Amino acid sequence: MVMIEERTREAFVEVLAPTPVARPVPAAEVAATDRTITTGYVWGALRLAMGWVFLWGFIDKLFGLGYATARDAAWINGGSPTFGFLNFGAKGPFAELYKSMAGSVIVDWSFMMGLLLIGLPLMLGIGVRLAATGGVLMLTLMYTAGFILPEHNLFLDEHIVYAVIMIGLITAGGGRYLGFGGWWSKTRLVERFPVLK
Predict the structure, then answer these.
(1) pLDDT tens digit string along 52-75?
(2) Residue 127 is part of which domain span?
(3) pLDDT in tens, 24-38
(4) Side-chain-facing half-sphere of 40: CA atoms under 13 Å
């Protein structure tokens, strides 16, 4: 009988006890979270676009798909992916330096591996910091090879715009959305070496 009384009292206390009420989330917090997620997806889309620019350059120069590179000038057919631009397109104060590198095996391999090792990680969303840093370097070299004082603008061309996007990808963590960056950043390797994010 005593046990029944205690259980009844406990049940009665539970019924009368105030239930915790969830605090409503202020609209400003919801809007800020929505904005953060939307911004993440925008950076993810920009990362994919930049990745495709570099990966497409690699694919077209490797196979000569007829867009920027003719089939007979494809790298797999013995063509040089750098000769045409560096020999005929280089202009400005560094033109002679770049012309002297035209067709070099080391320059060809460096250029093609740069396109691949920038484009592929950006497409996947892994190693975005290193890939985007390499992208800024490659875009700077391309700008100094032939686009200083561009034809259609006083100083601004797509290489500078792309480089600014790459810097944004580095600072905004552009690999976390629309790719494998969320998973990649939780691996032991990346936790130990965050530069690999």
Answers:
(1) 999 999 999 999 998 888 899 999
(2) 39-196
(3) 656 555 555 667 888
(4) 15
Q: Under a CB-based contact definition with an 8 Å cutoff, are residues 98 and 104 in contact?
A: no
Tell me the mean pLDDT in the region 121-136: 96
Question: Hey, how many other C-beta atoms are within 10 angstroms of the C-beta on 2?
Answer: 6
Residue 147: phi and psi, rounded to 5, are -120, 10
| Within a domain: 5 | no
Tell me the C-alpha distance between 55 and 7, whole Å: 70
Query: Confidence class of residue 6 from pLDDT cuts 50, 70 and 90?
Result: low
Give start and end residues of each alpha helix (H) in the chain. Answer: 2-16, 27-63, 83-84, 95-101, 105-124, 128-146, 158-172, 181-184, 188-192
Nearest-10 Cα torsion for 110, 91, 133, 34: -130
How far apart are the C-alpha atoms of 114 and 99, rounded to whole Å? Answer: 19
Amino acid identity of residue 90, one-letter, is A
Contact by Cβ (8 Å): 76, 62: yes
Number of domains within the chain: 1
The pLDDT, as a whole number, for residue 36 is 81
pLDDT of residue 7 exceeding 80, the answer is: no
**DSSP 8-state class, residue 23:** P
- Structure token digits, residue 11: 């049940």
Tell whether 18 is covered by a domain: no
